[in-house]
Amino acid sequence: MPSKDLPVTTEDQALEYVTSCQLPTTWATFQMHAFVETATGKEHIALTLGDVADGTPVLARLHSECLTGDALFSQRCDCGPQLEMAMQKIAKEGRGVLLYLRQEGRGIGLLNKVHAYRLQDQGADTVEANQQLGFAADLRSYSLVEPMLKHLGISSLRLMTNNPRKISAMLGMQIRVEEHIPLIIERNQYNERYLSTKVSKLGHLMQPDL
Ligand SMILES: [Zn+2]
Questions:
Q1: Which of 70, 76, 78, 140 is the catalytic position?
Q2: pLDDT tens string 104-153
Q3: CB-neighbour burial class of residue 94 (10 A; exposed 0-12, middle 13-18, buried 19+)
Q4: Is 77 annotated as contributing to ligand binding?
Q5: Domains in the chain, ordered, with CATH?
Q6: What separation in Å is there between the alpha carbon of 79 and the centre of ligand 1?
Q7: Distance in angstroms (rounded) separating the CA atoms of residues 33 and 37
Q8: How many alpha carbons fall within 13 Å on the CB side of residue 132?
Q9: Which tens digits make up the pLDDT trace of 52-73?
């Protein structure tokens, strides 16, 4: 047993909670919680609204960082509109959690995403582009979700996602997904092929044509 004088971080502690503050947004004033990943030093954020630790299922979004979509209004993907819709839904309900996971470009990083977009400009689809660069189609990991939610006192979710991998990733954790809520985003001329590839090659559950 470590004594109280030893550092807080231990080998099995993948994530360290740092601090929290208020984050006023267009839709609500969230609580923002900062975490740092022990192994990599990567910084991650959770936004919460209302009492999320009362034991009842929490409306939730597990959002992986996409700088171009989330901050630069890119129409190459649907990340920005999904983030916005999730925050709006949480604000409307007055209760929920959004984990903002720093795994840019489905885990390949920002510069590699630019390389991948260039290959897509030349005709590859999003999966082929990643593979041509030597990456798996999707390198995202959800291993930090459990310690982040645990810290926030959350054990069951009403998960907003179109991605069955996220739902199955939760199965191995002590997190229950009580409900799956799709986020249907309108297609445009730039994201049409991307969204179709997500359905045909990555198993996403979107049915925007219905
Ligand atoms: Zn994106």
A1: 140
A2: 888 889 999 999 999 999 999 988 998 999 988 777 888 899 999 999 99
A3: exposed
A4: yes
A5: 15-103+140-197 (3.40.50.10990)
A6: 4
A7: 13
A8: 16
A9: 999 999 999 999 999 999 999 9
pTM: 0.85
Q: Give catalytic status of residue 165 as yes or no.
A: no
- Residue 50: strand, helix, or coil: coil
111 in Cβ contact with 88 (< 8 Å): no
The catalytically annotated residue of 138, 176, 187, 209 is 138
Going by C-alpha positions, the residue among 202, 151, 186, 180 that lies closest to residue 33 is 151
* Percentage helix, strand, coil for the chain under 3-state DSSP, each rounded to 5: 30, 25, 45
Residue 86, classified by CB atoms within 10 Å of its CB into exposed (0-12), middle (13-18) or buried (19+), is: buried
Ligand 1 geometric centre to CA of 75 (Å):
8
- Catalytic annotation on 78? no
Residues 146 and 142: their CA atoms lie apart, in Å, by 8
Q: Is 63 annotated as a binding residue?
A: yes
